[in-house]
Each structure stands twice: as structure tokens, then as C-alpha cells.
Amino acid sequence: MSVLLYAENSGGKFKKSTFEAASYATAIAGLLNTEMVAVSIGNVSKDELSKLAQYGATRILTVDQDQLKSFVNQAYASIVAEAARFAGANTVIVSASFSGKALAPRIAVKLKAGYVDGAVTLPDTSAGFTVRKGAFSGKAFADVNLTSEYKVISLVPNSYKVDPRPVPVAIEAFSPSIKESDFRTMVKEIVRAADKVSLPEAEIVVSGGRGLKGPENWGMVEELAGLLGAATACSKPVSDAHWRPHSEHVGQTGIAVSPNLYIAIGISGAIQHLAGVSSSKTIVVINKDPEAPFFKAADYGIVGDAFEIIPRLIEAVKQFKSAHA
Amino acid sequence: MNILVCISHVPDTTTKITFTDDHKQLNTNGIQFIINPYDEIALTRALELTEASGGSVTVIHVGDATTEPTLRKALAIGATDAVRINSTPRDAYFVAGQIAHYAKGKAYDLVLTGRESIDYNGGQVASMVAELLDIPAVSVVKSLQIDGSQATLEREIEGGKEILNCPLPLVASATEGMAEPRIPNMRGIMSARTKPLVVHEPVEIPSLQAINGYDKPASRSQVKLVDAEQVRALVDMLHNEAKVI
Lengths: 325, 245
Ligand SMILES: Cc1cc2nc3c(=O)[nH]c(=O)nc-3n(C[C@H](O)[C@H](O)[C@H](O)COP(=O)(O)OP(=O)(O)OC[C@H]3O[C@@H](n4cnc5c(N)ncnc54)[C@H](O)[C@@H]3O)c2cc1C
Ligand SMILES: Nc1ncnc2c1ncn2[C@@H]1O[C@H](COP(=O)(O)O)[C@@H](O)[C@H]1O
Description:
By secondary structure, chain A is of the alpha/beta class. Chain A has helices spanning 16-31, 46-50, 73-86, 98-111, 218-228, 236-240, 271-277, 306-323, and strands spanning 2-6, 9-10, 13-14, 35-41, 57-63, 89-95, 114-119, 130-135, 140-146, 151-155, 170-173, 186-192, 204-208, 231-234, 261-265, 282-287, 300-303. Chain A is 28% helix and 27% strand.
């Protein structure tokens, strides 16, 4: 018995969310008195692979074939399920990234496993195997007890701390049986703004609403985000009006985020908006209306005009950074 | 082209969520239920595609009889017919099992779902149905174009998008951008009354998990207001107190 981590890479590099999932998998292996094994698919260097050992992987199975260079949902799911059987793992952990969330349900069906999507805590194994996840779009948590022999969990980015626990590791090539029929999807192109922090994984998010009046005013939002190493986001009306792309829309019908810091500027705080951001650790609200509902859901607030406050905040962050450089 | 659209029935987005005293169930008193917003996007795209190339749009829902107004609404928006699998959905695997069982052998060119239901937020059903039917699935799709028997899709990824090709049949889960949801008009509402709504009994699906209970997140303490002239104080608090920068 062991715990298997699907170690997702992006262009041959592991992201922080993969190390979070690795630490999480190692902690579960600890609870179950067993070892953490990782499977990596695609072209990842030995140096990069060995980073997983920093977070507790004792064994790494690597699958590196040309056909698998880009993400192919069906094939990846077959490989991870086969790796679980091969490694004698009955708990499989993936990061709840876009690809991880597409993959995990297929793995669960293949293994006849119960599946918790978007876990936010370690399993409670005192009576069963119960994992907490968000439900009702941030308005509640559900405690899900997995009763099956095999178990699959996807972990929400930013919900479990990276925890260095270096161990010796064995890296071995793994050759799964590959079905041609698993390769029906073909990636044509990946379009990504290279210098942008990805929203679902960002530790800090700067978000703007209709109070910012128009797309031309996002320059200062981006400047502030750039200084803080933050991702930018927006409310739904802002993306509906095409001031910002849909991929930045957070809330109940957009992306759910749980950064350490969420800064909301000119957003009223409608229940549907709060649904996607309320699990942020710290919330700062800047709004000119002291009655804006968002203040009730905030930790810190400034009542004032965004067009005056943002430039001041940019200056203050610059001063702070030079003082702490 | 024949398309199957999976519809889930969820509390209205403005609902304040509360639970029964034992924390085991959603308190449905006074809750207005709606079609899951993403499923409306999927349904609208299905209608656009069949309007362009012919074919039918069947909506399917796993739920008890109280959910029929939701299916009637889907018919009013424009679906050709509706199917209800008569049972209380236990979990996504149960729902996917029912849908896959219904769809098997019916040669749908496309099965569409929403990216996630706004109640359970699983985002599981699409991939599970695809796995059970052994066909591809593409999740969180913001653009879906069909050319003959080939689909071109754009799916969301961290910080960008991936454009991919896939032969039909396939399952896709819809997100914003795939279509602008339609609202039913008077004619649609009238004709929905007479469109077929067929009820099937569920098949048995093994149980792999159970919800022990629900909980509400801890509420935040009172907001600390910072003077608009003292913005630097906010930065210091975020560093020293909240420790987030
Ligand atoms: C089915 C459904 C789903 C939805 N899903 C989502 C969702 O996922 N995400 C989402 O965000 N919304 C969602 N909404 C919309 C939601 O109900 C609100 O309408 C929306 O969040 C409001 O956006 P806003 O706060 O940017 O705009 P407004 O409500 O117009 O608020 C603008 C705010 O800016 C402030 N302001 C104005 N000028 C200034 C200034 N100069 N300086 C500082 N502050 C200023 C105002 O005081 C006000 O509070 C959904 C709605 C429905 C019906
Ligand atoms: N009870 C249900 N009946 C039919 N389709 C459903 C049901 N529940 C969920 N779905 C579909 O599956 C999608 C994802 O749901 P979920 O996996 O629960 O987040 C929804 O957007 C619907 O399209």
C-alpha cells in the first residue's frame, strides 16, 4: 500500500501547486503509515524530478514518450490508474488544476474509487476517511467520507502548505500499456500570457469591479498587481462588458479563488461575487460607498475613491518594498 | 447532429444557504431552484449547433419529480425533448452512471454539461460520463465549433487557454463564453407544455462515498477600516498583522 501523487508539470517544470499536492500526499502517507510515490508524465529533467524528493517522494515513476508531451486527458488517466495499481497505491492525489480536475474523475471511474474534488483539509481517519471540501460555491463545506477501497482526492491550490521533508528517492522509468484510442484529442495550440500570474493559483489577487468605470483604468490595477506579484481578476459585469477577459471573472459563475490576500476595488460584494472569493485568507475592500456589502465580508477596508486610493496604495507598496528590499 | 445536454437543478445564486439541524441536508424551505447557470450555456450552444446543421437536443436530468419545472424550463428555452431519471442524486458517480447508461447505444454526437454544478461544485460528471462511454472529454470549454465530424474546442488552463481538436463523439463541459444563455420566450413556454418528458427508473450504481455533513465557514471578524489618507498603514498591517505580504 502507498499513496500515489500525480505530479503535474507545466512545460517540464513543477509549479508550487504540485509541491503542495506532494506535501499533502506525504502527510496522508504518514497517516496511513506508508510511503509516497509520484508519477510524472512528459518531459521532465532528473533535476526537476528530484525536487519531489524534497517533499517526501521516495519513488518516482516517469513516463516520457513523445506522444505524451502535451496533456491528453484519457491517456494520462489510463497511465495514472495503471501506475496506482503498479505501485500498490490505493490513494491517488492530484492538484485541482484545470487539467487535474479533468483527469481525476476518469481515474476514479477506472479504479472504482470514491473521489473528493477540491479538498481543503487532510483526511480525518479517526472514523473512516473523511475529507472536507467547499460546496455551495464557498457558502459551505461538505465532509465527504470515502468508503471505497481506492480513493482519489484533488487538492485546491493554496489550501495546504508546502512542507519540506527531504528523503532519498529512486527514479525509475515506467512503461504503461498505451491504447491508441486514448489519443483522440489533439492539442493545436496553447495561448498563455507568459508574464502573468495564473489566477487560480495566485497567492495575491487584485480584483476590480464596475466602480473602475472602464477598461482604460486597469493600468493602475495591473501596476499594483505587478508590484505585489499578484494576479488580476474582475467581477462578472466587467467581463460581460468585455473590459476584461472572461478568464478573469471570479465568483459563483466564474473562477473560485482562495489566495492569501484578495484586494477588491470598486466591487459591491454581491452574494454571487462573494461565493467565489470568500475562502480567501485576508480580504481588503476599497469602495467609495461605506454601505457597500463587501465591507461586511472584509478584514480591512478603505472607504474612498479608487482613483485616489490606488495611486496611494501603489506608492505605499513601493515604499514598503524598498524598505524591505 | 444529436446532442444530449445534462441539466442540474440548483438553488438560485442569491440563496442564503442553511442546513437542517443535524447538518446532514440542505434546508430547502423557501429556496428557489434554477437550471445550473453553466448548463444554460451548454443548452444554448446545443441549440445554436442544431439550428445550424439540423438534429435534436435532448435534455437529461437525474432527480425526483419535484425538479420537473426545471426540465420544463429547459424545454421552453428550446430543447426538443426531456428525460428524467427518477431518483435523488447521491453523488456525481451515481449521476454519471445514470446518464451514461441512458446514452449508451444512442449514438449522440455530443454530450454537453456545465463546468460544475453550483451546489456540489464537483466538476465531475462530464469526465465520468466520458470515461463510462469510453469517449474523450474536454473540460471547462469556452468555445466549441463543429465542422463535420470534428470539433475544435478552447478550454481554460491556468493563465490562458488550450485550443484542441477532437473527433465526435465527445463530452464537453461548458463555461462562460461558449454561448450567451437564452431566456425562454412566450412561444417557447407554451410549446414546452406539450413537448415529451420521459421518466426512466434508475439503474443500480455502487456507492463509493457519503456526505457525513455540512458546515458553514467561520464568519470573519469585524472589518478594520483604514483612513483613506493613511494607506501606508494598510500595507504595514498586511505585513505585520495579516502576514500576507
Ligand atoms: C446567476 C448570476 C450569477 C452571477 N455570478 C457572478 C459571479 O460569478 N461573479 C460576480 O462578480 N458577479 C456575479 N453576478 C453578478 C452580481 O450579482 C453583481 O451584479 C456583480 O458582482 C456586481 O459587480 P460589481 O460589484 O463590479 O458592480 P456594482 O454592483 O455596480 O458595484 C460597483 C461598486 O463600485 C463602487 N464604486 C463606484 N465608483 C467607485 C470609485 N470611484 N471608487 C471606489 N468604488 C467605487 C460602488 O460603490 C459599488 O459598490 C451574478 C449574477 C447572477 C444573477
Ligand atoms: N442530477 C443531475 N442530472 C443531470 N445532470 C447533472 C446532474 N448533476 C450534475 N449534472 C451535470 O454535470 C455538470 C457538473 O456537475 P458536478 O459534477 O456536480 O459539478 C452540471 O453542470 C450538469 O451539466
